[in-house]
Amino acid sequence: MNLSVLIPAYNEESTIREVIRRVQATGVAHEIVIVDDGSRDRTREILAELDGKDGIKVVLHAKNAGKGAALRTAIEAASGDVMIVQDADMEYDPADYPRLLQPIVDGVADVVYGSRFLGGMPAGILPQSAAANKLLTLMTNVLFGNKLTDMETCYKVFRREVVAGMHLRANRFDFEPEFTAKVLKSGARIHEVPISFNPREYAEGKKIGPWDGVMAVWALLKYRLVD
Q: What is the CATH number of the domain that holds 172?
């Protein structure tokens, strides 16, 4: 199994090296595909130093287009038969990769979500963020007849064939509901495992905002009706 790690990056000069180091330390990544989404800090300079080394492939967006756009580019550039989404901050720990990959290795899942809530409420998570996530996850379950606990998680692992032919359109954080809606409608086997989570605050560079929650609601409703 060849694993491609997909990293969308925007103004992450303070964390990008450490995230890459942690991914490489897992020893399971065949390649690391990093899409710089028009960063205006030193992220591009750092990535220029790393591009082509130790399985790292860097793709540059001419201007900031959003997380969804960066992930669509990363999926197209990836060569692995399994892919995992990894944020460029340090909220999510690559040490969880073996746990995330196991259901796919065992042949019991086509898609695995790393749930921040299966082990209880993560320490330090903003109350409004937790409430919004719970609401969006409940809405997802009602609309698509599932029992997810964390639709908005970054950690999504999937076989290449799951996204083959899947027409993803999202440019921003609406990637999460669009991807989830289309996975659930496709009939792919989806499984959740508990993960660790170290939330960061807006002062530390967190980018998702209230409007993204509104767009997530719209995406869930839209993709319940259309492909």
A: 3.90.550.10
Ramachandran sector of residue 205 (left: φ over 0; alpha: ψ -120 to 50; beta: rest) = left
Domains contained in the chain, number: 1
pLDDT in tens, 29-50: 999 999 999 999 999 999 999 9
Cα-flanking dihedrals φ and ψ of residue 3, to 5°? -100, 125
Length of the chain, please?
227
58-105 per-position pLDDT tens digit: 999 999 999 999 999 999 999 999 999 999 999 999 999 999 999 999
Instruction: Determine the residue type at 94.
Output: P
End-to-end Cα separation, the chain, in angstroms: 29
**Assign residue 76 a region: left if phi > 0, alpha if psi is -120 to 50, beta otherwise?**
alpha
What is the C-alpha separation between 67 and 146, in angstroms, rounded? 25
The parent domain of residue 174 ranges over 3-225
